[in-house]
Amino acid sequence: STQRHGEFVVAEHSKFARHNMDPTSTPTMRVSRFLSSHWTQCAVYQFAKMNLADEVQSGLHTSSALGAKIGVAPDNLYRLLRSMTHQKLLVETSKDHFELTPDGELLLSTHPLSLRDNILLACGPVHMGIWSHFDTIFKGSDKSGYELQFGMGMAQYLQSDPEYSQLFKRAMTNFSDHQSRAVVEVMDLSGVDRLVDVAGGQGFLSFCLLQKYPELHAAVVLDRPPVIASAAEAKTAHTMGVADRVTFEAGDMFVTVPTARAYVFKLVLHDFNDEQVLNILRVVHRDSAEGVRLFVADFFLDETNGAFTAGVDLHLMVLHHPAGCQRTPQEFEALLNASGWKLAKTERTSGVLTLMEAHKA
Asked: For the CA atoms of 258, 165, 52, 101, what is the dihedral angle to 10 degrees?
């Protein structure tokens, strides 16, 4: 059996070598990549934690120069930098001389679309600790990863750990801003004069839409009181020149929503189970006028983005169990139909989200 397996592997690699094909496309190599995926994640986390993208951008391009600056042995640092070239974050232009790639620039702390905080959050000790309970949650625990790790839910833990709370807020804002720009590219608000951004957080999506559509006279950012208090204090709306057309309103989308010509949910409904989503959609249906347009921008499990979204789905299970989940487009359309809506169109964005538009049935 072992001999036959060895013969299979050799034959497999020989076949691909003869045809000049990428050996990573073989079953053996594809499965073998799972062995190093966690190690790679740890390495990228270290690269981000030590702010090495910023250091390279500042002119420190060699392991000896970087090592002297941050106090790490050059040999160890070279091995880390070399590994980042295989992740397309760096390129080694000559022996031990590294430059940032466009991907690597997204780990700059000063990049307008920086994902550095997202790496620090997803790969950091808090989330790694939470994920250590995956087996327990998978086998039927009624508690979330936060509860198993810290003895409290996510909201309570965010209040108890200010440093983590700030990282969480920055990471969520960064990712949301990325996706907001992509959503605005494909969302058609022609003829809409008033919009409600439901659970809109800091309001960045609304600000972008207000910039794009001068005829959009008003946008209401609806969210929980603590979120609204924080959003109202921010100066982003003033910076983007839309402060006179946006209002922040504390409320509960499970109870009622303000009247508008369009409603948008971006990265909101995946946090809730089907019964909760139906409740929310029915509230919007009840409180809105005829001819209203409903937009939902979220991850959906499809062939285009299935692998990433499936990972997000498991992450939701660990963090929010037993509430949130990702859905296929067909599953979400069924929820729309059951709550009085009819799907009008679906569009992929240039990011990782898909935009659905629905009208009252």
From this structure: -20
- What gap in Å lies between CA 22 and CA 29, rounded to an integer? 10
Long-range CB pairs of 339-343, under 8 A, 24+ apart, other chains included? 339/278, 339/281, 339/282, 339/285, 340/281, 340/282, 340/285, 341/281, 341/285, 341/294
Element of type H or E holding 41: helix 27-49
Both tokens assigned to 190: 């022609």
Distance between CA atoms of residues 105 and 123, nearest Å: 18
User: In this structure, are residues 261 and 193 in contact, taking their beta carbons and an 8 Å threshold?
Assistant: yes
Closest CA to 203 of 167, 153, 239: 239
Are β-strands 90-94 and 97-100 bridged in parallel, bridged antiparallel, or unpaired?
antiparallel
323, HSE (Cβ side, Cα atoms, 13 Å): 13
- CA–CA dist 78, 69 (Å, integer): 14
What does the alpha-carbon distance between residue 37 and residue 40 come to, in Å, rounded to a whole number?
Answer: 5
Q: Would you call 163 exposed, middle or buried from its count of C-beta atoms within 10 A (0-12, 13-18, 19+)?
A: exposed
Strands 293-298 and 354-360 turn out to be: antiparallel
343 Cβ contact partners less than 8 Å away, ≥ 6 residues apart: 333, 336, 337, 356, 357, 358
Full pLDDT tens readout for the chain, 361 residues: 545 555 544 455 555 455 555 656 788 888 888 888 899 999 999 999 999 999 999 999 999 999 999 999 999 999 999 999 999 999 999 999 999 999 999 999 999 889 999 999 999 999 999 999 999 999 989 899 999 999 999 989 999 999 999 999 899 888 888 899 999 999 999 999 999 999 999 899 999 999 999 999 999 999 999 889 888 777 889 999 999 999 999 999 999 999 999 999 999 999 899 999 999 999 999 999 889 999 999 999 887 776 788 888 888 889 876 677 889 999 999 999 999 999 999 999 988 899 999 999 8
**Axis-axis angle for helices 74-86, 63-70 (nearest 10):** 120
The alpha carbon dihedral of 31, 33, 34, 35 has a sign of positive
